């Protein structure tokens, strides 16, 4: 069973040096971007250069570098889903040396009242995906590290936010009424597809994850509301906040 697949006693067969050689040490901090529009904005408004390349048979992912507030940082456009996002995070670490990652995506709200008007800083993530079980002992939830530090930064920036548990899933098409009800009863206020896996990988390799979310669609018993989804995905304010977080960590 999947919950028995955390193996920390033996070495991996496949290692990144097989693909990229020795690890590099170019930057310390990195933005994990989900929005193609926000990614394009950085490329168009800052002096950027490609500092790495993740290669795959279905297409490559460039890693870019730029200077922000006097510090060289990296950024890249990640894929969606826990397995892809976590693996990409580690490959970026290998190619750039980045150890601190600011990840900011959108999510589905499970509690409209709590999530309206502010960002979400997750404190725990329900492990409804598969990746985290390869990087951490089996458990229902994983603690989202650095949530306290991120709250302090949001307070400093005077950015509205709410904290709470979230649900990481592998399949948005199987977010059934029963599972939504169950997660809400456990205190989850949002659902997304990456945090548990990326957090588990970062914990395993000694990396730091700083994650915040913006709710777009809303999952309710009365139906599915998508009117704010585009805005949550591509909100320029998220990028400005992420850069300020990056400067302060």
Structure write-up:
The chain has 249 residues and is of the alpha/beta class. The chain has a single domain, classed as 3-Layer(aba) Sandwich (Rossmann fold), CATH 3.40.50.1580. Helix content is 33%, strand content 32%. The chain starts with 16 loop residues before the first helix and ends with a helix.
Strand content: 25-35%
- Count of separate structural domains: 1
| Molecular shape | globular
Structural class: alpha/beta
CATH architecture: 3-Layer(aba) Sandwich
Outline the low-pLDDT stretches: none
Rounded to an integer in angstroms, the radius of gyration calculated over CA atoms is 18 Å
Provide mean pLDDT, rounded: 95
* Terminal residue distance: 38 Å
Q: What attributes does this structure have?
A:
249 residues
Give a nutshell description of this structure:
With 249 residues, this protein is of the alpha/beta class. It has helices spanning 17-20, 36-45, 82-96, 112-115, 147-157, 177-185, 195-205, 229-234, 236-248; strands at 29-33, 49-54, 61-68, 71-77, 100-109, 119-128, 141-143, 161-169, 188-192, 208-220, 223-225. It starts with 16 loop residues before the first helix and ends with a helix.
Question: Topology of this structure?
Answer:
Blueprint: H1 17-20, E1 29-33, H2 36-45, E2 49-54, E3 61-68, E4 71-77, H3 82-96, E5 100-109, H4 112-115, E6 119-128, E7 141-143, H5 147-157, E8 161-169, H6 177-185, E9 188-192, H7 195-205, E10 208-220, E11 223-225, H8 229-234, H9 236-248
Parallel strand pairs: 1-4, 1-5, 5-10, 6-8, 8-9
Antiparallel strand pairs: 2-3, 3-4, 5-9, 6-7, 10-11
Helix pairs in contact: 3-7, 5-9
């Amino acid at each position: 069973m999947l919950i028995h697949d955390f193996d920390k006693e033996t070495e991996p067969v496949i290692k990144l040096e097989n693909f990229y050689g020795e690890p590099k040490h170019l930057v310390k901090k990195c933005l994990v971007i989900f929005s193609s529009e926000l990614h394009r904005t950085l490329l168009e408004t800052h002096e950027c250069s490609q500092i790495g390349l993740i290669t795959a048979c279905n297409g490559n992912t460039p890693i870019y570098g730029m200077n922000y507030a006097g510090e060289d940082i990296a950024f890249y456009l990640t894929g969606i889903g826990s397995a892809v996002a976590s693996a990409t995070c580690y490959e970026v670490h290998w190619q750039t040396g980045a150890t601190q990652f600011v990840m900011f995506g959108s999510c589905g709200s499970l509690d409209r009242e709590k999530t309206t008007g502010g960002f979400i800083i997750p404190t725990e993530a329900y492990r409804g995906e598969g990746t985290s079980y390869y990087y951490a002992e089996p458990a229902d939830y994983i603690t989202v590290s650095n949530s306290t530090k991120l709250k302090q930064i949001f307070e400093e920036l005077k950015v509205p936010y709410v904290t709470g548990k979230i649900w990481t899933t592998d399949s948005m098409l199987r977010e059934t009424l029963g599972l939504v009800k169950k997660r809400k009863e456990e205190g989850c206020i949002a659902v997304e597809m990456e945090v548990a896996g990326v957090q588990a990988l970062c914990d395993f390799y000694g990396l730091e994850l700083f994650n915040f979310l913006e709710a777009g669609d809303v999952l309710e018993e009365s139906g599915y509301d998508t009117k704010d989804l585009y805005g949550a995905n591509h909100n320029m304010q998220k990028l400005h906040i992420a850069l300020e977080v990056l400067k302060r960590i």
